[in-house]
What we know:
Elements: E1 4-8, H1 14-27, E2 29-31, E3 43-47, E4 70-74, H2 75-80, E5 84-85, E6 87-89, E7 105-107, E8 120-124, E9 127-129, E10 136-139, H3 142-167, H4 171-175, E11 184-187
Parallel strand pairs: 6-7, 10-11
Antiparallel strand pairs: 1-4, 2-9, 3-8, 4-10, 5-8
Helix pairs in contact: 1-3
Amino acid sequence: MSNHLVHFTSGDSLSDAFEHFRSIVAECRLLGGSGMIRGSHQCVCLSEAPLPLPNGLVNPDYYSRYSPFGLIFTKQWVFEQGGRPVIYQSSAEYDLLPEELRWLHVRYEPPVVDFTWEREWRVHCAELSFDPSVAALVVPSRACVDELIEDHDDRQVANCYAYAEALGMGEDEARQYREGFPWRVVYLST
Length: 190
């Protein structure tokens, strides 16, 4: 068991997934989705999978729709945002759940349908905002972090120019407001 939950991003390719991840980090928000969620409930999905995972989140057949890029949060923080572990049950049992809990249903009909390896949690929301104080970045390599740092530095330079113009100060004076890269980083493999 882990005290943390991870949200892995997806994409049509590794580079597409990384671009998606960069956007999430820049915006500090995860958008809820309804794919593969019965009843079309909007949820942000996470996994209780412990890290490090050398190959990311993969099932026993070594297939995954997830990329090696993600965000990690404490279970406590996710719980405080309304997150809960899903309820694995047969499709027939879905209607037994009260309407307000149906967003937690995940079909479980072994051996044909078994997603328990994902150890899924969900937050029932259209958008989950976060900041570096409650999240860490999950990446496969230092090269990815270097690109994220470059993105951050570019935004900081743009902010300095905007501050200088808006407040009527010089660029050198505005540069003192630059912030360092705020993220903690977790690598998938040790």
